[in-house]
Design goal:
Elements lengths: L1 H9 L2 E5 L5 E5 L20 E8 L4 E11 L2 E5 L5 E5 L10 E11 L11 E2 L4 E11 L9 E10 L9 E10 L11 E11 L3 E7 L2 E6 L2 E8 L2 E9 L4 E7 L2 E6 L4 E7 L4 E7 L6 E9 L2 E8 L3 E6 L14 E7 L4 E8 L24 E7 L4 E4 L4 H17 L8 H4 L19 H4 L7 H10 L4 H14 L4
Length: 477
């Protein structure tokens, strides 16, 4: 007993009883930092990371990084359409342009250690624009699928040289490790590497196929015999830079023409437009919002807004389903450049879709948390709520705008209102609640809580239960 107490006290550990009535002595890992809301571990890469893809079959991470360097050469195009480089003839004080050299490296899952001899360096002027892990299936494999790391690139050599791109398919192979290098058990093998007619701006996986955005065209490819065979394509508007796929639906974002929704028919091998937003908008990223049996479409724009659209063909303003209806919007004060989704934590403590109890839930209870990351380095989340809980918290949200003091006397309702460029013939849709404002209810005194809850026709315990259920649903660790 004295040894346990001395060990726990010396290493900042703790004691706890488990569900199996066991007393356990634990210590926190020393490699993690606990100063943030989530425990974090910093992995020194000595480079700028761009993409991370987890390979499920080998349990390794493929990380795309870049290192800057000065470029004393200037690319140009000859009369015979050959590319060449000419030295920059300037004095010593002339600032040389910077050039990023891209590479992909494999890392282990447990310790984030570099796997030796697994690095792939890309040629000069070639940039990696997208990289994802995909489960691809070919006709010769039947229903079986295999995991690959697929990357899209583009060559940027200035205005005089037309931009081209590549689609590259890599297989992570398990090899006999070197006795002197025990971690060298996996290596990359490039199965496909061919130039396309334009820059490859985005890729994704749809029904075992590769879907890619090349300029203003969207192509669907089938990976057969280490080669890409075209299945379907569609012409879009200006320039596609974001794709999001769920089942056979494709949501893409145009750089100036907002978003559109497509469907892919695997039997007929066609891509067809379902609906789109006709208002011009500079979209940064797009993602789905899963609320049980309902599906929404979330985008981030250049005005730091998050906007949610829905497909409602029975509504009059949707023009028979050809137009997406704007349902909600909020301003978060930062540009969002990426989205990802996770299942909510259900009643038994597991994540939705990871246990057998997920199948017992009602379809309306199967929701996803949509996470987003900003260019300022912040993380945020969006969680759909039931109608009853939303109405209760909506009334509380309106009361807290005037019931509690705010930082510097600023109005949170005004700040969260979506910013419109110029003059729009549209009113903002304030249907998204600010969870940070709702948590101010917990800082009130008992008398103030009871008075505020009485004004909206509920009890303080009910509001606390609603806030705790939201917090528990978003706990992914």
């Amino acid at each position: 007993k004295q040894w346990y107490q001395r060990r726990v006290r010396g290493e900042h550990g703790f004691l706890y009883f488990s569900s199996s009535d066991e007393l356990r002595v634990c210590t926190l890992p020393t490699t993690l930092s606990y100063d943030n809301h989530w425990p974090a571990k910093k992995v020194p890469l000595r480079a700028t990371p761009h993409f991370v893809a987890y390979h499920h079959d080998t349990k390794t991470y493929a990380v795309c990084t870049s290192t800057p360097s000065l470029n004393p050469m200037r690319p140009a195009m000859q009369n015979n359409m050959d590319k060449e480089e000419a030295p920059i003839e300037e004095d010593d004080n002339f600032p040389l342009p910077s050039l990023n050299w891209y590479s992909i490296t494999l890392y282990t899952r447990d310790g984030w250690e570099v796997i030796p001899d697994s690095r792939i360096d890309f040629p000069k002027y070639e940039r990696v624009t997208c990289m994802k892990f995909m489960q691809l299936s070919g006709e010769q494999m039947g229903e079986q699928s295999k995991g690959y790391v697929v990357a899209g690139t583009m060559s940027s050599m200035g205005e005089e040289v037309s931009a081209r791109g590549k689609i590259m398919v890599f297989d992570v192979m398990e090899v006999v490790p070197d006795p002197e290098k025990p971690l060298s058990g996996f290596k990359f093998k490039c199965l496909y590497d061919k130039e396309q007619k334009g820059p490859v701006t985005e890729i994704d996986c749809i029904l075992g196929h590769i879907i890619s955005a090349i300029g203003q065209k969207i192509y669907v490819w089938s990976f057969l015999n280490n080669d890409l065979v075209g299945v379907a394509f569609i012409d879009t508007q200006i320039y596609i830079h974001s794709l999001s796929v769920i089942k056979n639906f494709v949501l893409y974002a145009d750089i100036t023409k907002s978003i559109s929704l497509l469907t892919f028919d695997k039997e007929c091998k066609t891509l067809s437009v379902i609906s789109r937003d006709y208002e011009p908008m500079e979209v940064y990223r797009c993602e789905y919002v899963v609320d049980g049996t309902n599906l929404g479409f979330m985008i981030s724009d250049s005005n730091c807004n998050l906007v949610i659209y829905s497909y409602q063909p029975e509504a009059v303003e949707s023009q028979g389903g050809m137009k997406l209806i704007r349902k909600s919007d909020i301003n978060i004060g930062a540009h969002v450049n990426t989205f990802f989704r996770t299942g909510i934590r259900i009643h038994d403590g597991t994540i939705l879709g990871t246990s057998a109890s997920s199948a017992l839930l009602h379809p309306s209870e199967k929701r996803h948390v949509t996470w987003f990351a900003t260019l300022d380095g912040a993380l945020g989340s969006f969680l759909p709520l039931s109608e009853k809980k939303y109405r209760r918290l909506f009334m509380l949200h309106n009361k807290l705008v005037t019931a509690v003091p705010h930082v510097a006397g600023l109005n949170p309702k005004k700040f969260r209102t979506a910013k419109m460029p110029g003059r729009w013939l549209m009113n903002p849709h304030r249907n998204i609640l600010d969870y940070q404002l709702l948590t101010n209810f917990l800082t009130l005194s008992h008398t103030e809580r009871r008075e505020l809850a009485k004004q909206i026709g509920t009890t303080p315990s009910q509001i606390v239960d609603d806030l705790m259920s939201i917090q528990k649903s978003m706990m992914i660790f």
